[in-house]
């Protein structure tokens, strides 16, 4: 799949957690104004807000795949853009399905929890990412079968105090990081795009830790100290291809000063920082 991109590809947008396609409409309109000849598809997971919370990741990814493949214009390739949990879903789609469906040619993550999400011991849970009742339930029941089946975020809830349970029982992120049930196809798929663009920043106030947008995590045994992407064993061992992509200069770490929700509505960001990465012609 990797090669020189000779034409402008369609763009697929996917919303985040507790959200719907409606909240990506402004971004879609701005992109269409800047790139009037480009098809922009705004996907929705099930009924949006409810299913983005209470549907497991695999089902959400399947619905995203259905949205993409029903548009024939994507058959030769598309640029995947996700915000928040949507960026995580787009990564999951890339790793698990890019060899068997319309191919993603470029992956853009807007403050997505690529290194997982955790808060509540030493770190404060900020910004309403998780409704309070979901937060409390998940904190105590995070790796139980019922929780894993019914709360999408539990599948990438990386508890630094319970990493053995996380690695064994979390149903999504340990697979994407290829630390459980290693699959070389996932790594090949991750590396099949021409580039990966990651946006995030310390003013996010929602993703915890904010460095998760750049594949960072909490260090083992604490949610007060961050382990940057290049310090992780997964990176050093190149389990899912991030190290290879970085060494090939195909990963772009773009720090911003935006609040988490601003990525969808800030025209200056969309026009001057996002759109240049959307152009392939």
TrEMBL record:
Pfam families: Palm_thioest (PF02089)
Any one cellular-component term (Gene Ontology): lysosome
GO molecular function: thiolester hydrolase activity
Keywords tagged on the record: Hydrolase
Keyword Transport: no
Gene3D superfamilies for this protein: alpha/beta hydrolase
The keyword Metal-binding is assigned to this record: no
Coiled coil feature spans: none
Name of this chain's protein: Palmitoyl-protein thioesterase
Organism: Spironucleus salmonicida
């Amino acid at each position: 799949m990797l090669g020189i991109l000779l034409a402008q590809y369609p763009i697929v947008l996917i919303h985040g957690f507790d959200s719907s396609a409606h909240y990506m409409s402004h971004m879609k309109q701005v992109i269409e104004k800047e790139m009037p000849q480009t098809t922009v598809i705004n996907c929705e997971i099930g009924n949006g807000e409810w299913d983005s919370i209470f549907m497991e990741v695999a089902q959400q990814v399947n619905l995203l795949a259905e949205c993409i493949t029903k548009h024939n214009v994507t058959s030769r390739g598309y640029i995947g853009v996700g915000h928040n949990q949507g960026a995580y879903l787009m990564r999951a789609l890339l790793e698990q399905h890019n060899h068997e469906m319309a191919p993603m040619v470029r992956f853009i993550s807007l403050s997505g929890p690529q290194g997982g999400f955790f808060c509540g011991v030493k770190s404060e849970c900020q910004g309403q990412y998780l409704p309070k009742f979901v937060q409390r339930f998940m904190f105590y029941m995070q790796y139980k079968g019922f929780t894993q089946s019914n709360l999408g975020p539990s599948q990438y809830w990386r508890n630094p105090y319970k990493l053995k349970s996380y690695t064994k029982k979390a149903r999504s992120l340990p697979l994407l990081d290829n630390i459980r049930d290693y699959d070389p196809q996932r790594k090949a798929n991750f590396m099949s795009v021409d580039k990966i663009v990651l946006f995030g920043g310390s003013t996010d106030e929602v993703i915890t830790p904010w460095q998760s947008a750049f594949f960072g995590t909490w260090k083992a045994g604490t949610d007060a100290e961050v382990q940057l992407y290049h310090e992780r064993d997964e990176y050093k061992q190149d389990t899912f291809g991030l190290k290879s992509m970085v060494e090939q200069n195909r990963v772009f770490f773009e720090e911003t000063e935006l609040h988490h929700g601003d990525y969808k509505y800030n025209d200056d960001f969309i026009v001057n920082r996002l759109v240049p990465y959307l152009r392939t012609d």
